[in-house]
Amino acid sequence: MKTLAWTRRDCLLGAASLGLCSVSPWARAGGQLEEPLADSVRGALSAAIANSAPPVPEFADTEKRLAYLRWLGASSGRLQRRKTEPQTRIEFLQTVWYESRRAGLDTTLVLGLIQVESAFRKYAISRVGARGYMQIMPFWSRLIGDGDPSRLFNMQTNLRFGCVILRHYLDRERGDTFMALGRYNGSRGRAEYPNAVYAAAKNWAHPDA
């Protein structure tokens, strides 16, 4: 079995030179704790991450569609420095928008969390093995997924897991975002991580978010 040290060396000497993988100095969710889940909770979370392609957004009226397009355009401009390829950037933002709303989350908060966790790097790996945009720990694949942690580098899969996990923590904390973010980071009750996410989220504030 490959160790994390081997993975880091691989990334630095090989894939990282191609921009495919990086050990993220920003990633913080590696402190997430693997907690026992009741069968009912495990079943609900497994159902929540069941794969389905995000649909083309549909809107009840023209104004809602225009609001979405305004948000998409503004966010794309802000993200351009980190994701230079326009289609990749748009697909990422569309998926964040869809997955955050699917989970009943604030899209601005999710973007702030991604900024803190991975600096928008798809193949970021933390020092303890958390993966991708939302730095999902591999044990989640075993608990509520198909057991294949390599799929956590898939954009939609990673965002789906991250949003479902954050929703789970919000439910456990009865809607308290501060405490839920602490659980996501494994530092429940401490201010550093929630404050970092709140500060990053301000970069993505938009009236149509």
Question: How many helical elements?
Answer: 9
Order of helices and strands: HEHHHHEHHHH
State the CATH class. Answer: Mainly Alpha
CATH architecture classification: Orthogonal Bundle
Total DSSP E strands: 2
Query: How far apart lie the N and C ends?
Result: 43 Å
* Percent of residues in beta strands: under 5%
Q: What's the structural domain tally?
A: 1
Query: Whole-number average pLDDT?
Result: 84
Major sheet size, sense and barrel closure: 2 strands, parallel
What value does the Rg take, in angstroms?
Answer: 17 Å
- Percent of residues in helices comes to 40-55%
Could you say what the CATH topology is called? Lysozyme
Structural commentary:
The protein has one domain (about 5-205): Orthogonal Bundle (Lysozyme). The chain is built from 9 helices and 2 strands. The chain has helices at about 5-15, 40-50, 60-80, 85-100, 105-120, 140-145, 155-170, 175-185, 190-200; strands at about 20-25, 125. The chain has a two-stranded parallel ribbon. Helix 3 crosses helix 4, helix 4 (about 85-100) runs parallel beside helix 7 (about 155-170) and helix 5 crosses helix 9.
